[in-house]
Amino acid sequence: MQQALSRSAAAAPYAAPSDLPLLSPDYDPWDPIRSLQLYGRHKLTSVELTVTHLCNMRCEHCAVGDSLTMSEAPHLPLDLLFRRLDEVRHLETISMTGGEPTFRMETVRNVLLPVLKYARERGIRTQLNSNVTMDFERYELIAPYLDVMHISFNYTQADDFHRVGFARTGRSVRPETTAKLYDRMIDNARKLAQGGLLVSAESMINYRTHERIADIHRLIVEMGCWRHEVHPMYPSSFASSLPAITRRQMMDAVKTLLDARHPDVWMLFGTLPFFACSENEEERRLIARLRDEPNVTVRNDPDGRNRVNVNLFSGDVYVTDFASIPPFGNIRTEKLDDVFAKWQNHPMQQAVGCHCPAAGCCGPNLLVQDMYYRDVDFTKRRAIL
Ligand code: SF4
């Protein structure tokens, strides 16, 4: 499969240059385990930029919903950003997120494009988190410089998209209008994938999707996505008012997906609440299955391990764009490597700073620990293999 992807990408306008390693289950530079293995300790290799707080949608589960606005201030000068990125010694990846980063053409031209070109010149891999519901023209501009187009996909039909994607608009949005956006999103994703771009569709396992996850996967495959990324939903921002599902339901959804998945599509799981150190044998069996299945990976959580989030308006640096942890630095006055080092010594990071090399695991996400493991000291646990 990977060779096939590589060949088709070489002939496609949005394919990454052939001298860059192919992103694949064997090479995922967003996973903090790589730099941990390489340097023997966590290093800052990944920077996420919040480039807008504007969005044309208001998803019911939006993890940054409370920070969305109707207007916004000018961005910080990119010179300052590039200087700070130049200083990051081990930088390997840059992600851009929002809001909807392509909501304003001005952001596409004045922020996304220059950042993507900067990254490509340095051989740094990039990801854009977008709902791909805007005109294709915007995606066409950036796709030749981008490595991963990351979209959300939690639907089996346009009605779901209407119910989920516009739940928090605070006004009535006509189903005919959202149906057009749904079709455009599918069309855009398909065109980008056909052009050789790694389109990665993310679904969350939650009260709406856990019994329909196989159908969602099928549609993602039909869109031509190269990767299906799957995370449980955690109660952050808008999502905190939604019903939670049990760990049993979550586990069943993961198993269903593993049984139903298309074998050629890379399945990437993240922020799962199951670990190789679990006392529950069934959870450990699931972890072993995830490890052994071809084209399936479980990405360790980058937030605070190899990645920080920079707000491109205030310059504030966060451990993640969605947790309610205050900023712990600012790029106006500090180097990113220094800010990252401060976080490594923070008690919250140290509480989840475990590492079991044999399991390829470096501990839980902060939201996972908060939701399921408040009384557990992970630094005292070991993988049971
Ligand atoms: S690294 Fe931490 S979470 Fe992972 S198996 Fe070991 S103790 Fe458990």
UniProtKB/TrEMBL annotation:
Q: Per UniProt, which keywords does this protein have?
A: 4Fe-4S, Iron, Iron-sulfur, Metal-binding, S-adenosyl-L-methionine
Enumerate the Pfam families for this protein. Answer: Radical_SAM, YfkB
Taking every annotated instance into account, which residue ranges of this chain make up the domain Radical SAM core?
39-268
Q: Which SUPFAM superfamilies match?
A: Radical SAM enzymes
What Gene3D superfamilies does this protein map onto?
Aldolase class I (3.20.20.70)
What domain of life is recorded for the organism? Bacteria
What NCBIfam families has UniProt attached to this entry?
rSAM_YfkAB (TIGR04478)
Q: What is this protein called?
A: Radical SAM/CxCxxxxC motif protein YfkAB
